[in-house]
Structure formats: structure tokens, C-alpha cells
Amino acid sequence: DAKKLVRSPSGLRMVPEHRAARSPFGLDEPPWVPDKECPRCMQCDTKFDFITRKHHCRRCGKCFCDKCCSKKVPLPRMCFVDPVRQCAECALVSQKETEFYDKQLKVLMNGATFFVTLGTSDKSELMVCRLSNNQRYLVLDGDSHYEIEIVQISTVQILTEGFTPGGGNTRAIGMILQYKVPGSEEVTQMKFTAGEDFSCNKKLSAAWLAAMHKATKLLYESRDQ
């Protein structure tokens, strides 16, 4: 998908030429709180004057003094080319998301192997599951081929094993995914299970499922914005 470089009051952004091609994990730039509505820092209540200047957080759009909004942090969810100024609270959130974009997104794109069961069928098919390079589709390849549009996914439930009433570590072994068929209200369910016969792939499958869990959280957040 073609992209273009645009300049906004917040900074330079590399965005898709067509809005329909944007990443489902992306966030829109927030409107800035107007200067006239912000005589004081919205964090420490310091009054703005000739010396104490006001700055807007690029993630939430609120108005802060330099002390409360001094960090410049990458914000890939809004397609910024360079790190941008953010308040302390938003900077912390953005820093946590950096791991997803630097590591987990690559895990999803590289893919993992699962036994996939469609609907209520008692038959499963061994398939390689991966996120498309444009982040818009979950691609499943085996004897069959499926492409599930990420924005059509309604629920994701990660399946685990190893939990005991007295505590203990759990391990992700699969997931149940529900999505809407485009053009209808019909909901389809797929179950993904890591194969027990592929011990060398268990770690990769668990990492892929953990990345999918994080991706789902970001997807829900972008919908709620």
C-alpha cells in the first residue's frame, strides 16, 4: 500500500494514501486543547506566562508545561516519523507499545503453525498462521487458504494449560477466534491449537499467541478511541 509524508502541527507522519489502507492498530491524532482554554498546566496547575510556555502532548492533545511534557517518545500508532513530545502518562503507554512494534509485530508476521478447526467441525487442518505485512489480515495457509480481515475480529480467547488452584505458571496452547463475515452479521469461529508433535515449535507458537493477545488489546483500544 502506497504511503505519503504529511506534516501536521504535531510533526511529520508517514501515512497510507488511502484511509482504508491504514493499520487496524493505528490511532488518529487527537484534537489539541485550544490555548485559550488552557491558562494552566493540566498536570501540575502551573500558570502559563511569558517564561512558562505551554506544550501539547501529541498522544492525548492536552496542554502541559515543559516539566510535565518534556519526553520525546516514538509513537508508531500515529505513524510519526520521529519521537514526539508526550506527557509522562502517555509516554509510559507509548514506551510499553514500543515492544509490540519492535518485537511482537515481527513475530506475528513471521507466523507459527497450528491445527485449525473451523466452526463446530471435528476435523482440524495443519496451517501456517501469520499477520500480513500491511497488518490488515490474518492469513492462514494449508491445504485450504483463509484471509481474515483484522477489523472483522470480534473476540479472541487465549487457551492455556498448567494452572493449578495453588498457583503456578500457565502456558498458551491455542486460541479461539470469532470474526464477522464481510457483508453479513454471521459470526464464524476458529480454534487454533499448538501441535503436541511439534515440540520444537511450542515456544514459537506460545510467543505468537502472546503477541496475538497484545495485538487484540491494541485493536480494542483503537476501536474505543
TrEMBL record:
InterPro entries to which the protein is assigned, alphabetical: FYVE-type_Zinc_Finger (IPR052113), ZFYVE21_C (IPR032031), ZFYVE21_C_sf (IPR038632), Znf_FYVE (IPR000306), Znf_FYVE-rel (IPR017455), Znf_FYVE_PHD (IPR011011), Znf_RING/FYVE/PHD (IPR013083)
SUPFAM superfamilies according to UniProt: FYVE/PHD zinc finger
A Pfam family reported for this protein in Swiss-Prot or TrEMBL: ZFYVE21_C
Keyword line: Metal-binding, Zinc, Zinc-finger
One GO molecular-function entry: zinc ion binding
UniProt superkingdom: Eukaryota
Transmembrane spans: none
PROSITE patterns for the chain: ZF_FYVE (PS50178)
FYVE-type domain location: 35-90
UniProt xrefs under Gene3D superfamilies: Zinc finger FYVE domain-containing protein 21, C-terminal (2.30.29.160), Zinc/RING finger domain, C3HC4 (zinc finger) (3.30.40.10)
Name of the protein in its database record: ZFY21 protein
Organism of provenance: Sinosuthora webbiana
